[in-house]
Specification:
Blueprint lengths: L1 E5 L2 E6 L2 E4 H4 L15 H10 L11 E2 L5 E2 L8 E5 L3 H6 L9 E4 L5 E2 L2 E6 L4 E2 L2 E7 L15 E8 L2 E2 H4 L7 H4 L6 E8 L11 E6 L2 E7 L7 H11 L7 E3 L21 E6 L3 E9 L3 H11 L1
Parallel strand pairs: 6-17, 8-14, 9-19
Antiparallel strand pairs: 1-2, 1-5, 1-14, 2-3, 3-4, 6-7, 10-13, 11-12, 11-17, 12-14, 15-16, 15-18, 18-19
The structure holds zinc ion (ZN).
Zinc ion binds next to loops.
Length: 298
């Protein structure tokens, strides 16, 4: 099943056609996309039993990209994972972590799979990532059944302002990665049964049509089961929580010279078998002041 947030309403998507969950279920399930995770197993079972191509119980509408909003718009918690691909740790000149490196992206940074990304400065970087959404209350989950606790997966961008992220005396990942629209994900939540191998997905990112990142999620240092086991050994994970699992090599900050986003740049992000996103960078309200400051400092 593929579940999207279409103009604020939970919608099953099949072949770019959307079916309203509340109407199709005759009110059994809420139209609120975040409430979908309160009864995820029941919702998935219901959605999987319907032949959406044939006798769907409700009128369908075509999916307009611009109407797609974040599939989990109001999670209680949003986690990010740093340095989770060997290739990315190498380009960042940092040692491989012995436990997952965890930070948060504040929920106000979440955004839909198509739209604008306002740049607050000229130090903004891309990070394409596999995003997983929690489907069950999770505490002390064993790796062996961790996928059972995942509602589904999306493609996401952990967009990062590198100067704020690295500000001394200690890096502030959560701030540098939480400007508005710095956490887009989508286009829909894809359940695990739709994927051949959820631990080996093809992930890629292009800027203005040039591919800059390409990896398989089987290259993750800490794979999804290990991340769920580790996170749930410390914090309680709630249904609808969102986890950005880390980015592979190819970010702009790891290049010589560095390559950061500019107004007008187009970010294409893709996770094979799941979907793609497209974002256009625009100058944020503070952009002109920020680049004047950079120019006067150098
Ligand atoms: Zn990241």
């Amino acid at each position: 099943m593929r579940l999207a947030n279409l103009a604020g309403r939970a919608s099953v998507v099949f072949d770019r056609i959307a079916f309203d969950v509340e109407r199709a279920s005759a009110g059994r399930f809420s139209s609120d996309p975040q409430r979908a995770f309160d009864h995820w197993d029941e919702l998935r079972e219901w959605g999987s039993a319907i032949d959406w191509a044939g006798d769907a119980p409700v009128k369908s509408i075509a999916v307009q990209d611009s109407a797609l909003q974040p599939p989990a718009p109001q999670p209680r918690q949003v986690f990010g994972v740093g340095l989770n691909y060997r290739s990315h740790a190498a380009e960042a000149n940092l040692e491989l972590p012995s436990v997952p490196v965890i930070f948060t992206k504040f929920p106000s940074c979440l955004a839909g799979p198509f739209g604008d990304v306002p740049l607050p400065s000229d130090n903004v970087d891309w990070e394409v990532e596999l995003v997983v959404i929690i489907g069950r209350l999770s505490r002390h989950v064993a790796e062996g059944n961790a996928w059972d606790h995942i509602a589904g997966v999306c493609v996401g961008q952990d967009i990062s302002e590198r100067v704020v992220q690295g500000r001394p005396p200690v890096p502030q990942f959560s701030m540098g990665k939480s400007f508005p629209s710095f956490g887009p994900f989508g286009p829909a939540i894809v359940t695990i049964d739709e994927l051949d191998d959820p631990d080996d997905l093809d992930l890629s990112c292009s800027i203005n049509g040039t591919q800059v990142q390409h990896a398989r999620t089987s290259d993750l240092i800490f794979n999804v089961p290990e991340l769920i086991a580790y996170l749930s050994s410390i914090v309680t994970l709630y249904p609808g929580d969102v986890i950005f699992t880390g980015t592979p090599s190819g970010v702009g900050g790891g290049r010589t010279p560095k390559w950061f986003l500019r107004p007008g740049d187009v970010i294409d992000s893709a996770l094979a078998g799941v979907g793609h996103m497209k974002h256009i960078c625009i100058a944020g309200a503070e952009y002109e002041d920020a680049i004047a400051l950079t120019a006067s400092a150098s």
